[in-house]
Amino acid sequence: SGIAILILGIIWLGMSNYLEKGSLYVAYFDESVQGLDVDSPVKYRGVHIGRVHSIGVAPDERLIEVVLKIESDLKPEGNAKELVAKLKSVGITGLMFIELEHEPSEGQSQKLTFAFTPEYPVIPTRPSEISKFFQGIDDVFNMFRAIDAQTISNQVVAMLQKINRTIDDARLT
Q1: Contact at 8 Å (CB) between 125 and 58?
Q2: Beta strands of the chain (E only): which ranges?
Q3: Residue 139 per-residue DSSP state
Q4: Can you tell me the distance from the alpha carbon of 85 to that of 29, in angstroms, rounded to the nearest whole number?
Q5: Contact predicate 102/76, CB 8 Å
Q6: How far is CA 5 from the centre of its chain?
Q7: pTM for the whole thing?
Q8: What are phi and psi of 93, to 5 degrees?
Q9: Which residues are registered as beta bridge partners of 86?
Q10: pLDDT in tens, 69-106
Q11: Strand, helix or coil for residue 47
Q12: What residues contact residue 20 under an 8 Å CB cut-off, 6+ apart?
């Protein structure tokens, strides 16, 4: 009887993942997912509704594929035009989780095209706040690089020379 209980226990523990309720969905990110791990929470407006099932490189070797297991009654495929996934940070620890949010159709969700067929229903993604921050910094540096300092310097020198000539002409008359 002890061996039978042990075998049933092993089978029960091994099958527990298969007996869990929930549906699998996939989100593709075009940014680093460092800090996101398997079993990280998936939240809908702050409420825990699932977890990260797996993380890997997408078949196109460009995107990061994150498979989500949604364990609540929320059905993302019914809200596909409004529901987006976004990486969020847990304080200053560097740990990440996925937040599902409603976003109007004209929002900033990434328009990703796939050269492959996803295995699960796809939830669109939106860049994380840290990604937007670094993109803003890149934009500022690109604007500084685009400034033609030599032309501006030449124009300032020409303007100062013109002012000097005007002042000298005013003194003669």
Answers
A1: no
A2: 23-29, 41-44, 47-57, 64-70, 83-89, 96-102
A3: H
A4: 9
A5: no
A6: 47
A7: 0.64
A8: -75, -20
A9: 99
A10: 988 776 665 554 578 889 988 877 778 899 988 776 55
A11: strand
A12: 69, 71
